[in-house]
Amino acid sequence: MTDVNTATGAPESRWIQLFLWVFALSFAFDFRGDSGGSTVQMGFLGIALAAGGAVIALGYRHLRVRPGAWLLMLWWGFLGLSVLVAMFNGVNMGHYVRVIVPFALCGLGIAVAHIGACSGLTMTQIVTPVLIAVVINVAWRAVYGFAFMGVTLETVRVEILSPGINWLTAFIACAVLFRKGFSLRLLMIIGLVFAILFMSVTRGPLLPMAVGGTMALGCMVLAICWRLIPVEWAGRKLAGLAVFGVVMLVVGGTIVMSQPEIYERWAERLFNQAGGVTSKDLSWLTREAEAKAMIDILKGAPTTFVYGQGVGADYYWDPSYYPELYLVYPADFDFSGAFWFAGHSVWTYALFSGGVLGVLFHLALFGGVMALCLRSVYVNRALPGFRLDYAFLPFVAAWCLLSESATSNPFDERLAGLVFGMMAGLPQVLFLRARAAYARHTVPARVVSRRASAGVHGGSVEPLPVRIS
What we know:
Elements: H1 13-25, H2 39-59, H3 68-88, H4 93-118, H5 123-148, H6 164-178, H7 184-200, H8 206-225, H9 231-258, H10 260-271, H11 282-300, H12 304-307, H13 322-325, H14 346-378, H15 388-391, H16 393-403, H17 414-425, H18 428-442, H19 445-456
Helix pairs in contact: 1-2, 1-4, 1-5, 2-4, 3-4, 3-14, 4-17, 5-6, 5-7, 5-17, 6-7, 6-8, 6-16, 8-16, 9-10, 14-16, 14-18, 18-19
């Protein structure tokens, strides 16, 4: 499938594309440093802010183009509210700034992708730098973990995991189901992801893989119903997946036989967590301890259930969980200390930091991205010639992120916020494509030119559910 953009390109689109690349790649070599961040990471942030600011300066007039403008208003409204709540509650502003960075990068990513779409960039031109940045980071995290953090195959865990693996799972699912075959590049990406996951002995990414595959299959059904692909496509893909699954089992079996210690670690991780000394899964137990403490803090000031304690506010783990946690954790670990990072769950931290309003903003972000993505494909259903793997990518990526949201918080990582923000802005490409095509088939050419110009440069772009012959 081709990736043709029928929107009118803005004169400054080449500069916007250049700075979009710089923005997307700014955290390609990001890593987990100290809680305060390193000088290098501050440099990454400076590059991202400069590049994102340049895109906004060049294309600020596009920010009012709908429907993407509604998503921009939503998330930047949340960011503005978070500043007021943090100041009102007396949150340490140094902590606030450090925690809010991924959330802000998400908002900046929405703006950058949205402006890129409105200036005439294709989905490929927006997704490609994101893909390169994520692949670099996935490989770099492994190198950094083994070379600089002193981990080995016997001790390695989350140290080598990149936050980009979640998004890469969605990318792979869409590519496998909507591309004609397995290219060498795609096979290399799949191999990289599976190798990192196998070595890390971490269960977390398994759920996004299952959810991403399921949602991509659902999107394939929608594509068939909307006559974007023939029914026979599903049969060919499922047969190909069966063959691919057999190959992966053979490869996996070979690895297990050659590396039995990794197999033993996986068996312990999946079936004998913490040696069986805790009443519940250790990871879930820590999330409960954190969540209960956050709720208790909110109960101490009931009005904060509405607007929260503020991003970067201090919290702890509930003391009633200490005896069981100390069966696994070292005796000198201080659970009562003041934690202030973004927590281990999207939803508990959203409630703690932003109250009910914070939870609603997060729900609106995820739901808005999913709805805009599916709507953008639907209004192009009579206009073949666009890439379905990229068209459905924001929807699948949102579900992959959502699948981990109960037990992890991807907004604790800068790259994750940036990538999801750019996915949130991607559907604008297809909305403009549908609008331009509809205008060409319904109004005189001189009116089309005037309306297309108005739409791209700040006018309303309303998707119309019409079939264009």
